[in-house]
Amino acid sequence: MESDRAFKNSFPDYSGEALLDSNRKLKEPYQHKIVKSIEKLVKHLEGSFEPDRKDDSIYTGNAGQAFLSLHLHSKFAPAGDDRHLQRARDMLRPCLQRLTGSRVSFLCGDAGPLALAAVLYHKLGKLERARGYIESLEDMCDRVCSDSSLPDEILYGRCGYLSALIFLQHNMGEDCVSKEVVAGVVEAILKSGEAMAKRERCSYPLMYLWHEKAYLGAAHGLAGIYFMLLQVQSPSLQDRIRRQVRPCIDFMLTLRFASGNCPSSLGSASGDKLVHWCHGAPGWVHMFALAFKIYKDKRYLDAARDCAEVVWRRGLLQKGYGICHGTAGNSYTFLTLFKLTEDQRFLYYAVRFAEWCCEYGKHGCRTPDRPLSMFEGMAGTVYFLVDVLDPLNSAFPCFDFQ
Ligand SMILES: [Zn+2]
C-alpha cells in the first residue's frame, strides 16, 4: 500500500554488499559521509537551541539536549575531553532546580533530569552527588505505586518511571538502584494489568488502558509496557513477568495487519495507516525481537521481520526525521533486526535511511513543533546517525536498554 504519510522508497534493493569493516563498525565511505553530516547538525543544534523554561523533559525539552550530549561524549570524546559533558551539565542544571513533581516518567517527567544527572555526575567522578539524584528518584516510588490516577504506559506512567530505573542499572550497574524500589513499581504495574484484564474479561493476563482506550503501540500502549517489563533484570521478578507477558504477546501477534504493520489501538477504525515508533510496527518490533531472544519462538522473529519490511516500504515519513514519529525512530527497526540476526540486509536498510536523514530538511517534510528536540526533532536524528556508525552497539534511546 502506498501512503500519503510516507515518501516512496526508491532506494534499490539490497545487493549483498558487506557493510562492516574489520572492527565491526560501519565501513567507508558510509562512515565518513555520516560523520560529516553529524558534525554539521551538531553545530547547528549547539548554535540554535534555546533552553525553554517551560519544558525540561527529555522528550521535547532541555534534558533531551543533555541526553544527546551524553551520547556524543560516550561515542566520540577522546580521553580528557569533557566538552559534551559540560554541555549536558549546563542543560541539566536549571532543570534540576525546577522539578515540578507533576510527571514521573523518564521521557516526560522529573525522572528524566534526575536519572541523567546521576549518570552525568557519576561520569564526572562526583559519586556522592550522583547518589543524591538516585535517592531523589527512588523517593518518587511511593507515589508512582500508590497514585491510582497514574497510567502505566511509557510516556506519562509507571513504565515510564521504571524505564528510568532500568536506564540507571544499564549505565551504573544493577545494584545502583534499590531492589525494593524496582520490585515495588513492577508489582504495581502487574497488579494494575491483572485488575484491568479481569475487568475487561481478557483471555491474557495483563491489560492496560490509557484514557479508557486500549492503545497498542510503544508510547502509550501495550507494546511499550510489555517490552519494558521484559527488560527487568532482577531474577526474582523475571519468572513471573515472563510467564505473564508471553500470552499477552501471543495475543498481540493475532492483531497485526496483512501488511506486517500493527494497529494503534484495539477496535480502531482508522486501519493500517501509522508507521511510527509511537503507533505502529516500529514500536512493536522491539517487543517481538526481545520476545524471540527470551522465548526462542520463531513466530516472534517472523513478526519482527514483517515489521522491518513494512518500515522499509512505508517508513520515510513526511512528518520528518525524528525519533517518535519520524524516519530516525523508524530506522531503529532495522538496527534492532540487524543486532538480532546479523543479516546485513537490515543494516543496508538502516544505512539508506541514515543517508535520507543526512539530507535533513531537503525533502519538504513538515516541521515539528519542537524542531531541535530529542524525540520530535534534530537532536534525535543526530542520536540515530551516531548509532548507525556502530550498529552492533545501537539502541533506541530511552527505551531499549539491551
Ligand atoms: Zn510520535
From TrEMBL:
Coiled-coil ranges from the UniProt annotation: none
Positions that bind Zn(2+): 278, 324-325
InterPro entries per UniProt: 6hp_glycosidase-like_sf (IPR012341), LANC-like (IPR007822), LanC-like_prot_euk (IPR020464)
Entry keyword annotation includes Transmembrane helix: no
Gene3D superfamilies linked: 1.50.10.10
Gene Ontology cellular-component annotations: plasma membrane
Record bears the keyword Zinc: yes
Molecular function as annotated in GO: metal ion binding
Keywords: Metal-binding, Zinc
Pfam assignment, any one: LANC_like
GO biological process, one term: carbohydrate metabolic process
Assigned protein family: Belongs to the LanC-like protein family.
Name by which UniProt lists this protein: LanC-like protein 2
Lineage, uppermost ranks: Eukaryota, Metazoa, Spiralia, Lophotrochozoa, Mollusca
